[in-house]
């Protein structure tokens, strides 16, 4: 049994050695084939590169003048290769130019189509804008027309109001004028005096005034006389010697005699006797300017007094114009 096992082991070792030897033989056989294939492929690649770049190689060799330096003459093959390269270059340039032209034409057509689209779009936008502008203008025109109509209505209203106001004013003025015209006026004669600067003499000056007609013209005349001369009368030199603050308390006419009741201030005159005589004369001449009065009876505070002033000027009886001749 031991021998059998030994024999089996020896046989297995031999078989293993044989398989290893076979594999090594195969590898030695395959290596030369693999090297040939590599070099063949490398040569093919070089040939392809040469064929592709033969024109460039030929042009480089011609430029460097390689063959003239080495062999003394340039092979015809080099010239043919350069010419073929030039031809190919020209063909390539023509193709490229044609391609460029086609591209430019297509670009032009694209640009043209784009410009047409842009123009169309711009035209559409312009039409839309114009339509909007027209609608806006229409709206504005409507607004303006409404505003103008309202302004016209307001102006017409204002004109109507002005006309009405003017009419009312004219009516009022006419009524006032009519009322003034309807008011009857009357003339009153007032007696003032003028004092001569040269000798101090007193000169009687009568002034005519136009006043509104009333039922008591004598009272109106005496009150106007007590108030004194107006501006125009002063400019003429008129003055009054009736004591200031003298007031007319009452008026009564009886048998062509005017009975005039004065306040107590009427009794005291600062111009002495001549002033007292002058004040009485002014009252008498003013009262007797009315056709219904011939003389005047003076009363002081409702009482009959015989004299006025300290020296005494008679007023106990009625006085007429003849009393001052």
Helix content class: 55-70%
Rg measurement, Å: 76 Å
Q: Uncertain spans, ≥5 residues at pLDDT below 50?
A: none
Strand order of the largest sheet: 3-4-5-6
User: Total strand count, please?
Assistant: 8
Average pLDDT number: 78
Major β-sheet annotation:
4 strands, mixed
The dominant shape is rod-shaped
The number of helical segments is 7
List the helices and strands and how they pair.
Layout: H1 2-52, H2 54-64, H3 66-70, H4 76-182, E1 185-195, E2 202-212, H5 217-227, H6 231-235, E3 248-254, E4 257-262, H7 272-287, E5 295-300, E6 303-304, E7 307-308, E8 313-314
Helix pairs in contact: 2-4, 5-7
Structure, described:
63% of the residues lie in helices and 14% in strands. The protein is an alpha+beta fold and 325 residues long. Among the domains are: 2-52; 186-324, no CATH class. The strands form three sheets. Strands 3-4-5-6 form a four-stranded mixed beta sheet. A two-stranded antiparallel ribbon has the order 1-2. A two-stranded antiparallel ribbon has the order 7-8.
Characteristic terms for this protein:
325 residues, alpha+beta, four-stranded mixed sheet, 7 helices, 8 strands
Concise overview:
The protein has seven helices and eight strands.
